[in-house]
Design goal:
By secondary structure, the protein is an alpha/beta fold. The chain folds into two domains: 170 residues, Rossmann fold, CATH 3.40.50.360; 31 residues, no CATH class. It contains six helices and seven strands. It has a five-stranded parallel β-sheet with strand order 2-1-3-6-7, with helices on both faces. Strands 4-5 form a two-stranded antiparallel sheet. The chain is globular. Bound molecules: flavin mononucleotide (FMN). Flavin mononucleotide binds next to helix 1 and strand 6.
Length: 210
């Protein structure tokens, strides 16, 4: 059994990556983590080039991921919230899965998926969007977990005075940015526990004996 974790966050090692790892670390079988950070993944161009053979013809970093996705028995998909939606990198990745569903060929049918999502204010939004995509592929949804991540406004250098950023939205005017108010996965033990529980549940569904 093999589980592929994919994080669509462009920031390596931040909350989305960490939440994907929490799930992967609890599965109990062979896992692989792929960060989409820095990868060039174009949106689906609706060229219909994949209709006959289920192989996308766009030449970019999605190509090498194709075989990994097909070889995996389950996917852990992670995405952050950008402007109350999936971030574009994650969306491009998910659009390109379209190559796996044509005519009678649903190459991802029967695979399991755990979804994790993050957001500075509304972390559950990306998970809800990805959940809606899974039925198109007949991927079986195991569960989702959403955790608060640190918006970059906390570290941009202007967070305390900026009237438009997440710091003001969350804490109001005049707040001082200290480590304690910067959202961190480590201070959300319920989310970590939920991610680990989903990892274990996935392992059980895959028949992994620990
Ligand atoms: C361009 C941009 C737009 C964002 N928009 C939202 C938003 O609308 N709602 C929200 O809850 N968080 C928003 N965020 C905050 C991110 O979701 C948050 O920082 C999340 O932790 C990012 O994931 P990461 O920690 O893995 O990088 C935004 C961040 C960026 C960079």
């Amino acid at each position: 059994m093999r589980v592929l974790g994919i994080s669509g966050s462009p920031r390596r090692g931040k909350s989305t990556d960490r939440l994907v790892h929490e799930v992967l670390d609890s599965v109990g079988c062979a896992v692989e983590f792929v960060s989409l950070a820095g990868k060039k993944i174009a949106p689906c161009s609706a060229c219909l080039g994949c209709v006959k053979d289920n192989i996308c013809k766009i030449k970019d970093d999605m190509g090498p991921l194709r075989d990994k996705i097909l070889a995996a028995d389950a996917l852990v998909i992670g995405a952050p919230n950008y402007f109350s939606a999936l971030n574009a990198l994650s969306h491009c990745f998910l659009e390109r899965l379209c190559q796996f569903r044509h005519r009678d060929c649903l190459s991802l049918a029967g695979k399991y998926a755990v979804i994790v999502s993050t957001g500075g204010i509304e972390p559950e939004v990306p998970a809800a969007m990805i959940e809606k995509m899974l039925p198109y592929y007949q991927i079986k949804h195991v569960g989702s977990v959403a955790a608060q991540g640190a918006a970059s406004c906390f570290t941009c250098g202007y967070g305390e005075s900026c009237s438009t950023g997440a710091v003001r939205m969350l804490h109001g005017k005049g707040v001082e940015i200290t480590d304690e108010i910067i959202p961190d996965l480590g201070r959300q033990p319920d989310k970590i526990a939920a991610a680990r529980a989903l990892g274990k549940q996935l392992g059980t569904l895959l028949g992994v004996v620990v």
